[in-house]
């Protein structure tokens, strides 16, 4: 069985290099004590190298990548990230879809490029508003769009994070999803993947949950959420809280 995967998505935090290194050091100390959980720390771009220096057991992640290098002012290529030691790249986070207008076709290019560069990608999908009990069709559309023409041999390096926007802690009125709904989303995602690439390839994709994950709910997501990992935003910026999340996840397996 693969280890439970916990991704710390720092977003655009913290604001100083000193605080980023301090946080990375503190999280690494927590990670060192624990077994059975794989931890990825995804700091903002300028802190990738200094944070990497603080990490031994935890792996380095990036929060996005452009799809190529060259005449693209301000963009970062997958090759550049790979050369820094980045192992996982978050693609298609709702904040990028909403604030930067990222489309499924751009996300598809990024996914291909990240995978071809030898890194794992964490594709974020999820509906904006909570509607009824069924997983909305938009989730399937986002997956089909993002994985278009990706060779099934690369599926084992894909993670899909179900992150309903209404559950992300910074969305006004956010509430965490329930493990039951996360389980339904995970089954739904598996069906979409199996339709696209067959049961065997789809089985190698890791499915994660994200949205207000905390020390209060991580245990129930590990046990009943039908997922192999979690994407953690706000709670990953606090050493004690994240340390507790790691400990609970490793015990709940
Ligand atoms: P949250 O963020 O844990 O603060 O809800 C998750 C995310 O947006 O990736």
From TrEMBL:
<comment type="similarity">
    <text>Belongs to the triosephosphate isomerase family.</text>
</comment>
<dbReference type="GO" id="GO:0019563">
    <property type="term" value="P:glycerol catabolic process"/>
</dbReference>
<dbReference type="GO" id="GO:0004807">
    <property type="term" value="F:triose-phosphate isomerase activity"/>
</dbReference>
<dbReference type="Pfam" id="PF00121">
    <property type="entry name" value="TIM"/>
</dbReference>
<keyword id="KW-0324">Glycolysis</keyword>
<keyword id="KW-0963">Cytoplasm</keyword>
<dbReference type="InterPro" id="IPR035990">
    <property type="entry name" value="TIM_sf"/>
</dbReference>
<comment type="pathway">
    <text>Carbohydrate degradation; glycolysis; D-glyceraldehyde 3-phosphate from glycerone phosphate: step 1/1.</text>
</comment>
<comment type="subunit">
    <text>Homodimer.</text>
</comment>
<dbReference type="InterPro" id="IPR000652">
    <property type="entry name" value="Triosephosphate_isomerase"/>
</dbReference>
<keyword id="KW-0312">Gluconeogenesis</keyword>
<keyword id="KW-0413">Isomerase</keyword>
<dbReference type="GO" id="GO:0006096">
    <property type="term" value="P:glycolytic process"/>
</dbReference>
<dbReference type="InterPro" id="IPR013785">
    <property type="entry name" value="Aldolase_TIM"/>
</dbReference>
<dbReference type="GO" id="GO:0005829">
    <property type="term" value="C:cytosol"/>
</dbReference>
<dbReference type="GO" id="GO:0006094">
    <property type="term" value="P:gluconeogenesis"/>
</dbReference>
<comment type="pathway">
    <text>Carbohydrate biosynthesis; gluconeogenesis.</text>
</comment>
<dbReference type="GO" id="GO:0046166">
    <property type="term" value="P:glyceraldehyde-3-phosphate biosynthetic process"/>
</dbReference>
<protein>
    <recommendedName>
        <fullName>Triosephosphate isomerase</fullName>
        <ecNumber>5.3.1.1</ecNumber>
    </recommendedName>
</protein>
């Amino acid at each position: 069985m693969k280890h439970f995967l916990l991704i710390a998505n720092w977003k655009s935090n913290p604001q100083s290099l000193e605080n980023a290194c301090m946080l990375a050091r503190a999280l690494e100390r927590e990670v060192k004590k624990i077994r059975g959980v794989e931890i990825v720390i995804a700091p903002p771009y300028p802190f990738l190298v200094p944070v990497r220096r603080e990490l031994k057991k935890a792996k380095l992640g990036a929060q996005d990548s452009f799809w190529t290098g060259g005449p693209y002012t301000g963009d970062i290529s997958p090759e550049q990230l790979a050369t820094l030691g980045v192992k996982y790249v978050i693609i298609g986070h709702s904040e990028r879809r909403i604030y930067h207008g990222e489309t499924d076709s751009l996300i598809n290019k990024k996914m291909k490029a990240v995978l071809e560069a030898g890194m794992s990608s964490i594709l974020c999908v999820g509906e904006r508003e909570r509607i009824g009990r069924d997983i909305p069709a938009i989730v399937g559309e986002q997956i089909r769009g993002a994985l278009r023409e990706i060779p099934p041999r690369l599926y084992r390096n894909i993670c899909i994070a179900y992150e309903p926007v209404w559950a992300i802690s910074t969305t006004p009125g956010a509430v965490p999803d329930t493990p039951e709904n996360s389980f339904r989303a995970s089954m739904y995602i598996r069906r979409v993947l199996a339709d696209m690439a067959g049961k065997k390839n789809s089985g190698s994709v890791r499915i994660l949950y994200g949205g207000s994950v905390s020390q209060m709910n991580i245990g129930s997501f590990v046990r009943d959420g039908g997922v192999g990992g979690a994407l953690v935003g706000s709670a990953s910026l606090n050493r004690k809280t994240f340390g507790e999340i790691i400990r609970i996840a490793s015990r709940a397996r």
